Amino acid sequence: MSQTTEQIYQSDIGDILENSLIGKRPSPEECLRLLKSDDVYLMGLVAGHLTKKQFGKKASFVNNIILNYTNVCITDCKFCAFYRSPGADDSYTLTLDQIEARVKSAWEMFKIRQVLIQGGHNPNLKIEYYEDAFKLIREKFPQVGVHALSTSEIDMIARVEKSSTREILSRLKDAGLQSIPGAGAEILVDSVKDVISPKKISSDDWIRIMDEAHSIGIPGSATMMYGHVENKQDIVDHFFKITKLQEKTNGFMAFIPWNFEPNNTLMQKEGIVEHGAGGIQLLKMIAISRLVFDGLISHIQSSWLTNGVGMAQLALQYGADDFGGTLIGEEVVSCTGARSTELTGKLIIDAIHQIGYKVEERDNFYKPVSVL
Fold first, then answer.
1. In the structure, what pLDDT confidence band is assigned to residue 87 with cuts at 50, 70 and 90?
2. Pairing status of strand 299-300 against strand 64-68
3. What is the DSSP code (8-state) at residue 57?
4. Cα-Cα-Cα-Cα dihedral sign, residues 331, 333, 337, 343
5. Domain count of the fold of the chain
6. What is the pLDDT of residues 150-187, one digit of tens each?
7. pLDDT per residue over 296-341, tens digit each?
8. Is 307 part of a structural domain of the chain?
9. For residues 210-241, b (16+ Cβ closer than 10 Å) or e, as one string?
10. Strands 64-68, 114-118: pairing kind
11. Domain limits for position 288
């Protein structure tokens, strides 16, 4: 470690990394310096050290399916290749029987522990649709956790029902909603949202709905979609809005940074973003995420979906501890044509073993199911 210590001492971010090693998280100003630095390898060494100190040489994953229950959406986000307008020839909404059949086959074939339920902002769906779906899953497949609905979908249901988001969350929890994915955050800065998703909820609303969920005992994930129109200060603002809420509620179980994939999206067609951010930027974001959230949010996800398995293996050595989930039936990122988005548990287990790590299969709440 002496050579590494010397490298840290000589680095332009050495003071920040030294503080990280003694448990002092970077300030917003220091976070900005990390984002401006090219010393990604050193950030990764320190972030990886912090991760191994907490988890050892072990990475977790969850056996799950993504259930995209509808592609009907009236929000028209420029970064999305999945949505269809109401009435479009290729629009769809799954019936309860179709939902049951998909979960049943996934449980029987793969012993899934989680179903991640996300779709579009469909104004034709009332709350009973979601309540019935969640009750069905929890009653018929009690070992399968319900990780469902972005804050913006919850806001949509509230508008359809002319109700408050808190009331909607309470009803959905009673029906079987156990945790909330972090989708809809993108970058929690409204000047960015005004460009990429002008019809979606504001940054303050995302924070407020997550706060409401945490306050009634529904934990969640926090995400960041980077690599489009945001600048470095926007990323800092995003990190510290998440930090502030986590210090208040302790409701985030994981943080997931992932890069925007422009293929087949309006943002590519309009020339706003021509290509993805790439692997080095992923490793930098993973490492900074660990440094910013060390001791605050336990789990950092490796984000294989838009970067591939090889980059996810590297991410596990740059501060991530969780591989995320298997994906069977995912339809949103696959619409970009970026890569195959089918990944089974065996492929994840092999990928983790290949870098000399133990594998922990987990449930919805990051509790271990088995160690492999």
1. confident
2. unpaired
3. S
4. negative
5. 1
6. 999 999 999 999 999 999 999 999 999 999 999 889 99
7. 999 999 977 777 889 999 999 999 999 998 876 544 444 444 444 5
8. yes
9. bebbbeeebbbbbbbbbbbbbeeebbbbbbeb
10. parallel
11. 58-371
